[in-house]
């Protein structure tokens, strides 16, 4: 028969060890017990405080202090739990920071809105930079002058550095619980993170000075600059490297999360331990880099990402606040070994708390004028909230523990000084969290900063009425049921719509039209813009836009919301992002490799087209939603009209791209169709799986194939097929008619390059080196050989040949030619053109006809601007006659035609004015629209029927009959 020997229960949490005071008797695994109990307490506190306004972090600190008091300050020991408490309380300060800060700081920076960070950055830097230095001096001076500890100035300033910065861990946790406005939260959170990092740099400086190292003023400034800027640079490097890595990861959220978590720890260690910089500033920079890219996560991945970081931040917050309470309790009871009058010590803690509040008030109001001007501005209520949010927390405790760990040498830091640092810091943490943390919500309510605005109250009532209509619809469905049920019981649980229910009994009935009435134009525009944002997300998840464009679209909404009182301005922001920056002109030079130029230029143009397409699509959806919810009222009609005006601008941009670079539009639409087909195939596979006609193994196999295709599409989308120089030359109406030998020579000497808008092909008066064929895009002439007042600016679209006329007549370039869009320019070397002219064989006449096209648009832009390039070519082919004249001949020009002097020189018989080529010879049909260089066509001459000229040098004149054009 089996017997069981009775004995002590092996997992008695409260069992006292044989020698509880001896650390060697404790089991290291007891630390796990403390961690588990702490998390359990955190879950309990969050559950109980869910419907209250009390920050759960404050309760955690109090619970931790109570546990520490039971273990360190009473005879009621906590057994194995107490062993775990002691193990955690004796944790190394640097290890404490290294374990918790990478999670908490990165999560705080990552969760902030990039748009608001940019707006609030000057305010944050002002408080985190000069503000920390001023606060350090104020606190250090007060400690030196008011406290009886006989510390030198360096030691006092060291304590001032520890207490000068608000703790980001405590502040972020508090503001998330209180639900403060996003603008205010961004300022307080960002300033808290930055000034804590800056304070650590200042702390490290005074820490080394206390331990005997001397610094001059120059070396002090160098140390502060290197510690701050170096930290930011390290964070940026790690962030950019991580984002580059993430580009090669597709649809794998687990890898995304793991990489971010790993990099945060490695970056912190690199900055804090290896570079001797501020790990906190590094984490802030790293988190902001990731925050800038979080919009590139698709909807499911983005939601999972926030849930992941929210969970681990909650775990870290729970542990660190309970542990902070334990450390505070330990410092309270250990101070009795150095100070017989603990009451006096507590009095100095309260005095220090007052000093902290006064110092922070001085700092905030010293910079108040600048804070009101910078960023979003600041009013006095928000300034008071910023002052009251100056909590101290785990970071300050960890720094004071570092001081305590280094104490023991009376020459530098005595053990009493180290213990007093922990006690004063712990007391400050306790008082700021309990007093400021627990009353912050009351202060927000007192200032009315947590109340709903009038527009928000209107939306609340609208939402309730919509719920009431849904309840009414459901009641009609259920009324036909044969199963009996009690309507009053059902209605008793629908308290959310009780105050808008028009009936005293259920089922409910309402006659409300269901339209949302918003009188405030700003709120109406904000609603429209938020609907636009959601449409962007849907478009992104559908694959119609790519990752590089979603951030621009989201930022445009944020910028427009800031300017909602002035109208819809999201297109204004987008239009600035569509323009090619000035440095892109470097890619259009011969120095940059053509492939690199194409990649940069085409990528920019593709992104611009994606942005415009998504903008038009999202605005159409948002307009329809706005009308569905608000009806066709006056305010909604105004917003819809503003949206339609902006859409028109976007459509103009797409039309310009289509005219200048149609290959981009083809690529964009091909990608969208490809993605739609692959997604429909994926949905078809899911339907077959639900119907059960496929085995699991088959579904997984085909699903992997589809995912590979989608990944291939996202990483290597359809490329833009830019025509080769030979292809462009072959399809040109003039050059394509040349003999194969001529075409072969041209192709051998031709090269292509993409030019961005604003690039100069050649300048007026420069030496002729090449002839340019415009394959795509358009070019505009900027300076002609005529007086400035002449309207000679002309646009040359695709198919134009520029510089050919100058090559034939042997002149330098006649004007500046500047691209006004992205243009594919084919450069043909002058040697090839000269070779063609030397062979003659009828080629010269064809080239002269092509020159007529360019000269006609240059000399008579008003006459030919209404014609397309093909129409001008048809006019020259069908209605032009070219004649050559020898010297001393007298020629007569009829007023029924337009004549261009292409070569040679003439003298006007009536005015004796010398006319050199190129020139337009006057006729009555152009007398009212064209300014001439040869003769003033006003007065008598303008009404004559013909003009006579004497040929000075052999001339070539082309006559174009455009009377019927």
TrEMBL record:
GO terms for molecular function: potassium:proton antiporter activity; sodium:proton antiporter activity. It is found in: Membrane. Its main location: membrane. GO terms for cellular component: chloroplast envelope; plasma membrane. One of its GO terms (biological process) is sodium ion import across plasma membrane. Residues 734-837 form the Cyclic nucleotide-binding domain. It catalyses: K(+)(in) + H(+)(out) = K(+)(out) + H(+)(in); Na(+)(in) + H(+)(out) = Na(+)(out) + H(+)(in). Keywords: Ion transport, Membrane, Potassium, Potassium transport, Sodium, Sodium transport, Transmembrane, Transmembrane helix, Transport. The chain crosses the membrane at residues 31-49, 56-75, 95-112, 124-147, 153-175, 227-246, 314-333, 345-371, 383-401, 421-444. Gene3D superfamilies: 6.10.140.1330, Jelly Rolls. The keyword Transport applies. PANTHER family: SODIUM/HYDROGEN EXCHANGER, SODIUM_HYDROGEN EXCHANGER 8-LIKE. This is Cyclic nucleotide-binding domain-containing protein. It comes from Anisodus acutangulus.
């Amino acid at each position: 028969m089996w017997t069981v020997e009775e004995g002590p229960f092996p997992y008695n949490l409260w069992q006292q060890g044989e020698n509880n005071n001896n650390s060697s008797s404790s089991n290291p695994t007891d630390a796990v017990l403390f961690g588990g109990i702490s998390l359990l307490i955190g879950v309990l506190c969050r559950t109980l405080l869910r419907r209250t306004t009390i920050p759960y972090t404050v309760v955690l600190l109090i619970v931790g202090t109570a546990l520490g008091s039971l273990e360190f300050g009473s005879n009621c020991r906590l057994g194995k739990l107490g062993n775990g408490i002691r193990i955690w309380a004796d944790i190394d300060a640097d290890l404490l920071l290294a374990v918790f800060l990478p999670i908490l700081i990165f999560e705080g920076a990552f969760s902030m809105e990039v748009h608001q960070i940019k707006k609030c950055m000057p305010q944050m830097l002002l408080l985190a930079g000069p503000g920390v230095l001023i606060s350090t001096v104020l606190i250090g001076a007060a400690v030196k002058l008011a406290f009886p500890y006989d510390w030198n100035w360096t030691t006092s300033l060291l304590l001032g550095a520890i207490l000068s910065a608000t703790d980001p861990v405590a502040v972020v946790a508090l503001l998330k619980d209180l639900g403060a406005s996003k603008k205010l939260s961004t300022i307080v959170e960002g300033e808290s993170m930055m000034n804590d990092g800056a304070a650590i740099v200042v702390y490290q400086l005074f820490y080394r000075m206390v331990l005997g190292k001397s610094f001059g003023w120059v070396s002090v400034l160098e140390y502060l600059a290197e510690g701050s800027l170096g930290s930011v640079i390290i964070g940026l490097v790690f962030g950019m490297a991580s984002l580059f890595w993430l580009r090669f990861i597709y649809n794998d959220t687990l890898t995304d999360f793991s990489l971010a978590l790993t990099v945060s720890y490695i970056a912190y260690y690199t900055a804090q331990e290896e570079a001797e910089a501020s790990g906190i500033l590094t984490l802030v920079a790293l988190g902001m880099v990731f925050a800038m890219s979080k919009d590139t996560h698709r909807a499911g991945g983005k939601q999972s990402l926030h849930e992941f970081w929210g969970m681990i931040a909650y775990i870290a917050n729970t542990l660190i606040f309970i542990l902070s309470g334990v450390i505070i309790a330990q410092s309270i009871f250990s101070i009795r070994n150095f100070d017989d009058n603990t009451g006096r010590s507590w009095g100095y803690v309260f005095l220090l708390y007052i000093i902290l509040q006064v110092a922070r008030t001085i700092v905030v109001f010293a910079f108040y004028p600048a804070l009101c001007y910078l960023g979003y501005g600041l009013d006095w209520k928000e300034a008071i909230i910023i002052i009251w949010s100056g909590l101290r927390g785990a970071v300050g405790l960890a720094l004071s523990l570092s001081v305590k760990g280094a104490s023991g040498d009376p020459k530098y830091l005595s053990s009493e000084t180290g213990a007093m640092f922990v006690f004063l810091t712990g007391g400050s943490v306790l008082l700021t969290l309990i007093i400021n943390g627990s009353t912050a919500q009351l202060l927000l309510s007192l200032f009315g900063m947590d109340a709903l605005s009038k527009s928000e109250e209107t939306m609340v009532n609208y939402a309730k009425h919509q719920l009431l209509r849904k309840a009414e619809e459901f009641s009609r469905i259920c009324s036909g049921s044969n199963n009996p049920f009690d309507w009053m019981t059902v209605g008793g649980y629908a308290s959310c719509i009780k105050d808008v229910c028009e009936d005293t009994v259920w089922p409910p009935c309402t006659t409300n039209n269901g339209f949302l009435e918003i009188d405030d134009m700003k709120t109406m525009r904000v609603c429209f813009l938020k609907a636009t944002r959601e449409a962007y997300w849907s478009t992104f998840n559908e694959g119609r836009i790519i990752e590089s464009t979603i951030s621009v679209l989201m930022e445009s909404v944020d910028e427009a919301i800031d300017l909602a009182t002035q109208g819809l301005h999201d297109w204004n922001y987008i239009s600035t992002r569509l323009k090619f920056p000035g440095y892109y002109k470097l890619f259009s030079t011969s120095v940059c490799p053509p492939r690199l130029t194409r990649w940069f230029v085409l990528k920019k143009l593709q992104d611009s087209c994606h942005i415009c397409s998504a903008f038009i699509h999202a605005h159409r959806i948002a307009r329809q939603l706005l009308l569905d919810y608000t009806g066709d009222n006056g305010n909604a009609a105004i917003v819809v009209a503003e949206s339609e005006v902006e859409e028109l601008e976007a459509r103009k941009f797409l039309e310009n791209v289509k005219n200048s670079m149609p290959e981009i539009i083809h690529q964009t639409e091909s990608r969208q169709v490809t993605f739609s087909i692959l997604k429909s195939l994926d949905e078809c596979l899911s339907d077959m799986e639900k119907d059960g006609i496929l085995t699991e193994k088959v579904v997984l196999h085909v699903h992997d194939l589809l995912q590979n295709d989608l990944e291939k599409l996202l990483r290597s989308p359809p490329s833009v097929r830019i025509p080769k120089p030979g292809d462009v030359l072959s399809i040109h109406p003039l050059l394509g008619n040349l003999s194969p030998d001529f075409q072969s020579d041209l192709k051998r000497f031709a090269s292509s390059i993409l030019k961005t808008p604003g690039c100069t092909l050649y300048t007026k008066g420069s030496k002729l080196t090449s002839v340019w064929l415009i394959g795509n895009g358009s070019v505009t002439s900027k300076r002609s050989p005529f007086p400035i007042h002449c309207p000679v600016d002309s646009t040359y679209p695709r198919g134009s040949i520029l510089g050919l006329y100058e090559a034939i007549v042997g002149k330098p370039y006649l004007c500046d030619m500047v691209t006004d869009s992205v243009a594919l320019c084919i450069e043909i070397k002058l040697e090839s053109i000269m070779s063609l002219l030397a062979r003659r064989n009828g080629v010269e006449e064809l080239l002269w006809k092509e020159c007529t096209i360019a000269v006609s648009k240059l000399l008579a832009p008003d006459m030919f601007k209404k014609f397309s390039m093909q129409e001008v070519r048809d006019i020259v082919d069908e209605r032009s006659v070219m004649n050559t004249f020898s010297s001393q001949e007298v020629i007569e020009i009829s007023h029924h035609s337009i004549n261009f002097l292409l070569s040679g020189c003439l003298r006007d018989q009536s005015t004796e004015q010398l006319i050199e080529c190129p020139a337009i010879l006057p006729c009555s049909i152009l007398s009212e629209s064209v300014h001439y260089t040869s003769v003033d066509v006003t007065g008598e001459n303008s009404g004559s029927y013909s003009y006579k000229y004497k040929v000075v040098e052999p001339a070539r004149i082309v006559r174009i009959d455009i009377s019927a054009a």
